Amino acid sequence: MTESRHALIIANDRYDDQGLKKLRAPAQDAAALAEVLHDPEIGDFEVDVVRNEPAHVMRRRVQTFFNDRRRDDIMVLHFSCHGIKSESGELYFAASDTDPRLLDATAVPAQFVRQCMSRTRAGSTVLFLDCCYGGAFSRGSSSVRASGEVNVLESFEADKSPGGRGWAVITASNSMEYAFEGPDLAANSAPRPSVFTHAVVQGLESGEADLDEDGKISCDELYEYVFDHVRDQNPNQTPSRTMEMQGDLHLAHSRRGRIKIAGIPSPPYLLDAIHSDNTLTRQGAVHELRDRLHDESLPKAEGARQDLEEIARNDIRQIADQAVGALHEIRLAPLPDHLDFGSVPEGSAARQRSVALGGPPLARHCVAQPKQSWLRVEPSTSGLNVRVETYTEGRLAGEIVLKGVAGEAVIPVEVVVEPAHKPPGTAPEPPASDETAPAPNEAETVVVHTPPPEPPPKTPPQQPPPPKASTGREEQKPRGTVSRFRRAPAFAVAALACAVAAVALGVVTVVDAAEAIERRINEGWEIEDHVRDLSVLGPLRWALITAVAALVLRPIARHDLDARRERYTKKEANITRILTTWAKGLAVPTLIVTVLTLLAYLVGSNWW
Length: 608
Known about the structure:
- By secondary structure, the protein is an alpha/beta fold.
- The chain has helices spanning 26-38, 55-66, 103-106, 110-119, 195-206, 219-233, 268-274, 279-293, 298-314, 317-328, 361-364, 473-476, 487-523, 527-533, 537-563, 570-604, and strands at residues 4-11, 46-51, 73-85, 91-94, 107-109, 124-134, 166-171, 180-181, 184-185, 216-218, 240-245, 250-253, 334-335, 339-345, 351-357, 366-370, 375-379, 383-388, 394-404, 408-418.
- It starts with a strand and ends with a helix.
């Protein structure tokens, strides 16, 4: 992104006044939102966080944030705190030192924030308000009481800023969300994760807010996503917005959609083989592309995949089926392909299950998108760690969509969240995962998996057997080690040696045969006498044998290379492929020439 992008997050969860002391989410909200906005692959904002500061500091930081900006700047301001309406209907944002009886002196007026937004020369400004709104403060009481709706958006109906395209205000709710009675919040306001900020973080982090899947998340798309998400979690809370904006404002990059990799084209000799008129040559090209498909270099493997897809679409049935079979090896194959968490108590720590992703590096390179807000996905060395949040009672069914370069896979997830206080006699719940569960409002972690190295075996290493019971073979070649005798390179060298020998013997045969023909023309006698005299048949016979041996050893070497891929280093595999290719290139024409020479001798000896 070329614009200058700045974000200020103001979060207050501690208050000096006894009537403003129940917010638990702002600190965690601020950390999660700051992380996703700062991520250069998502928001790429310069982020500043202000926590639990007094009113005069908050006002100073807000005004400084909007001052001295340029036309191409994009500004994001986020409030996570109490919102209080005065008796005259004005909205204030509570600071750590806010006294509800002295709002003008100890709180931040919404009017002040609106003026800063309208005066800035920044091109675009977006304000997020995740506030618990209290009612008016009564002169004769020491508590904040409910007094109907807080018209949040009306406080920000302002003229367009002088600097550019406009502004937008998105708020968690435009009406009373909590009631304040006496020194504490009402009983129905037990601390829970901030649904609104969590939806903002999840929509940006996962890319699910990219509704048109164009790779960018606009302000409109983010609002639509947050609206649906919040209403789904709490039907009594309705996010609202007001804006005056010219064109779309893209707040973030999107990670949504299928992985795209810029493939490296196949080398020219392989492209020639792909488009060859010879069927056997094209089959060999498919085999070579299959090897490249398993390469650790993702661009190289992606180039091979694209070529195989072209072959699968355009070639004859036999070769197309081979290409389809090769492409089948990079399909997404999660294990297990279904997760059932069973019964868990409501509000308990998040439970975790692991999902392994197998196959070559190109198959493991994918995006995981949880479709429900109670699902959490994190990367692991072998695949994914999946967690479920337990804040909603009942039977939950969801799914995680995996998207890779070659297709998609869906992992169904089920869990039954039971009431926290279960009747006596109920079977105990399975223990939670040993790993620390994330905070309730932690941002959704939906990641792009770069191909990790092959995971080690998950089974613990077995104890070595007693010396007397050992056969010796297991100790010499334990699982995962490289055999001392590398069969594929050895067979490849043997194939090339036979091919070179066949060429040399073929040359000798052709030279001797030419001399035999010359003697027949000059001296007479039958051709068979000259052939016998010059010992032509000996080299001819051995040329045929060595050429056939080379062509037999070549597929043996390639088969062993494919079947025991883990035994060979990348260098050994490349050497094997080169040697077998040369062996085939020398042996095939030699075999053809020697066979034709033999047929010519058998036919010509009868009449010449």
